[in-house]
Amino acid sequence: MIRFISIRLLTYVILAFVATSFAYLLAASLMHPEEVLYPPAATEPVPHQTAQLYLNTRNINPDTPLFERYANWLGGLIRGDLGVTTGTNKSMVPVFDELKTRIPISLRLIVLGTVIGTALGIILGMVAAVRRDSLGDRASTLLAFFLLSLPTPVIILIVQQTNQLIMDGTGWGLPAINPINPLLEAGSWESIRYQIKALVMPTIVLALAAAASYSRYMKVTTLDVLGSDYLRTARAKGLTRGRAMNRHGLRMALIPMGQYFAFAVGGAFSGSLFVELMFNWQGIGRFVISAIAMADVNGTAGVVLYTAILTLISATFADFLQGALDPRIR
Amino acid sequence: MTNPQDIRSTGDAAQLRASTDPEANPVLGAAVGDTNTSTPGGDPENISGLELIESLSRGELLRRRFLRSTSAWFGMIIFALLVLMAVFGPMIYQYGPFERDLRNALTGPSMYHWLGVNENGLDIFARTLQGLRISLVIGIGTAFLTSFLALAVGIVAGYVGNKGKWGAIADGGLVNLINLFLVIPSLLLLMLFSPVLQQATWLWMIPLLAGFAWMLTARVLRAMTQQLVRTEYVEAARFMGVNPLITMTRHIIPNIASWIIIDTTLGVSAAILGETGLSFIGFGIQYPQVSLGTVLQDYNISAPYTWIPPAAVLAALVISINLMGEALRDALDPTSGSSRL
After folding, report:
1. What distance separates the 2 farthest-apart alpha carbons in chain A?
2. Closest in B185, B186, B322 to A149, CB measured
3. Residue A154 is nearest to which of B192, B282, B311, comparing CB atoms?
4. Distance from CA of B267 to the nearest CA of A (A)
5. Chain A environment of B188 (Cβ under 8 Å)
6. What is the pLDDT of residues B88-116, one digit of tens each?
7. Quick check: B249 pLDDT over 70?
8. pLDDT class for B4, splitting at 50, 70, 90?
9. B185–A154: do the CB atoms touch at under 8 Å?
10. Alpha-carbon distance B118 to A63, whole Å?
11. Does the structure show a pLDDT above 80 at B124?
């Protein structure tokens, strides 16, 4: 079990490293930070010396060979330094600090949305499979089909519009923009209550999107399990339907879900990107959109590293779950 | 759907065929017909008398099963309507997708602007129809390209996997390449590439989206190919010295074709959703063109008519494609309800 997990972990670390390097090289070769430095509207050209100095301190000088820049960046990565933000922002904020303030904001969304969505999806999928062709099964399958046919922005718009309609009608509604209210005193009960209220709608969106796909997968795997021999044996031994399902079926149905979970975090990241954009949360998603738009090479690479680590952690977690659930691996 | 385990003797088949009227029982008739084609020239005097009863071909069978489902009809009708709208839309609308009517900015549906005007004075009807065109082209193009890429990678990885050391290395490399693509959210890489390629033409969106969508399908196709490579007829072909390319096209692709067809259909909707998301955050279709995602971008929560038309068209498009895909899956799947006798 330990050997199995450590081999998997090693593979993931290598994958994450390769992925981040790949992303850095891509960003460094595709983006043109010098074009952001010299806007076409500038009347007076920046002196060559100044420009070179500016680009060199940020390790984004296009005159430096690509692999030298990459080596510099790698050296920084080993020391735990991800470089500084570039682009129109001249203040040289370390990317690490920028990520540190933004990760809690995004992670809160991703973790809550994924956990609630997974739990909801597993329960719905299982119920739909066990009570096949019942009213609940039909309703949940139809809802999942409908949700999977909508892009995340449209789901967000529907939720926001519903909230707006309720607000117009009753005068009471959830805050639609900003995770915190700057007017309220930080740390006060009012402020915390606002934060919780602001979290509701984004979580609904992410949980719905996750639950829709999880319930579908769960339904398929549970149907497989329901037709299996060992479940029939368990029933033949005299276990009730529910007990047999809980003791033998659920565990086997969850095993394939683990592997799916590993790569679903990438989907959750994309989902949270839209949520942050449309609910005006200053998280990683908004940061990466502006970073790519402003040709911020270091910032983009930092975000890719973050997503790779996120995938790595969730994949390890999935393997761990699989090891705990599946007796054949232990 | 040819199941290698399902081998009936010709005697059984003849007996079945004699007792079954193919018209009344198309499935069984076709199944019997299958056994007939798979053993050409076997026992002529046994079959000759029964050859007169015609059985359904596989294509005909599929067509019947597909048309039997209501959801397939719904999907086809909605999709056909949307395609007609996309084709003939530009003949109807009075304002172009980029004509600004700032005087009427943010007004609801009226006689001149059928679906209203957004904040920037752009006609929503014209933009939605124009966006529908782009989304359709991108969706269909991407789906075909994705299936092709997935087919190439999946089959090669699955076929080569058990061909000695180098084959295993190549297979491992391809698997790791697939995993690598899955580690980075493809949205990020799309955002990196898209602005660069968009400078050339918006059609670059098709290979770009396809380049980041083939991985999961390729994984499945690889697993399916690995199973097929172990079957007797592929082994036999190999021992007869048949060229691997011919083996692939003649023995492997027909067996996984049904899966590919379903996946291509569902891939259309996936591509449309991907493109919409990308355009929505401003990294997709750029100015001289407009896609449904770009139209959605100009939403205004206090004026629902700014986003409901593009969202409704988008939902109708994706739902109609998914309905057809699911119906196709049911038609091709012998264990599903639609194949009941």
Report:
1. 87
2. B322
3. B311
4. 12
5. 23, 288, 292, 300, 303-304, 307
6. 988 887 788 888 888 888 888 888 888 88
7. yes
8. very low
9. no
10. 45
11. yes
B67-77 burial code (b ≥16 CB/10 A, e <16)? eebebbeebbe
Which residues, other chains included, contact A235 with Cβ-Cβ below 8 Å and sequence gap of 6+? A241, A244
Token pair of B58 as six digits: 């596989």
Helix (H) or strand (E) holding A180: none
pLDDT tens readout for residues B34-52: 444 444 444 444 544 455 5
Structural contact between residues B126 and B97, judged by C-beta atoms closer than 8 angstroms: yes
A112-293 has CATH 1.10.10.10 classification: no
- What residue ranges do the domains of chain A occupy? 1-89+295-330, 112-293
The pTM score is 0.82
Q: How far apart are CA A199 and CA A110, in angstroms?
A: 11
Mutate to test the interface with A, among B74, B184, B335 (most CBs of A within 10 A): B184
Give CA–CA dist A284/A107, Å, rounded: 9
CB-CB neighbours of A237 under 10 Å? 8
Is B281 close to A151, i.e. CB distance below 8 A? no
Of A23, A176, A293, the CB nearest to B184: A23
What residues in chain A have per-residue pLDDT under 70? 1, 37-42, 88-90, 262-263, 329-330
In whole angstroms, give the CA distance from residue B323 to residue A149: 10
In the 8-state DSSP scheme, what is residue B251? I
Nearest CA in chain B to A20: B184
Q: Take residue B267 and report the two structure tokens written for it.
A: 């891939």
Q: Residue A316 corresponds to which amino acid? A: T
| Residue B138 contacts residue B271 (beta carbons within 8 Å) | yes
